[in-house]
Amino acid sequence: MVEDPKGRLTPGYQRHLFICAHERGPEAKRPCCLTRGGMDLMKRLKNAAKQEGLSGVRVQKSGCLDFCENGISCVVYPEGVWYTLTGEENIPDLLEHLRSGTVAEHLRMNLEE
Ligand code: FES
Question: Residues near 97 by Cβ (< 8 Å), separated by ≥ 6?
């Protein structure tokens, strides 16, 4: 049986969070999450989750999630909840979602516009 690098025999996580860190050039017509701090926030959240000892979760950067105007874009599975993030002030709410599944309603992405 094949193990992953963490010794797990089956793939998947209890919760899987992606933060967009896509970069566009200065001439691009659409904004990008990298210049708004997506990569920095992803790294800070990843470290915070590690320090909290959260297991069964994974925090990763993603490419463009296609909601660039609503970024920093973030999605958490299995709930399929989309967030618009602003910076490290969002980390406690994201950690709580990863820990308990509690959705941070005030961070939900507005998909109506
Ligand atoms: S650049 Fe982040 S969602 Fe498109």
Answer: 15, 17, 76, 79, 81, 103, 104
| 8's tokens | 């797990």
Mutate to test the pocket of ligand 1, among 69, 73, 74 (most ligand atoms within 8 A of CB): 73
Residue matched to tokens 């701090």: 37
In a domain, 92, yes or no: yes
Whole-number Å distance between alpha carbons of 71 and 31: 8
Q: How far is the CA of 109 from the centre of ligand 1 (A)?
A: 13
Q: Are 39 and 60 in contact (CB under 8 A)?
A: no
Strand (E) or helix (H) holding 82: strand 81-84
Total domains, the chain: 1
pTM above 0.85, yes or no: yes
Beta pairing class for 15-20 and 57-62: parallel
Please report, for the domain that includes residue 70, its CATH number. Answer: 3.40.30.10
Q: What tens digit of pLDDT does each residue of 72-102 get?
A: 999 999 999 999 999 999 999 999 999 999 9
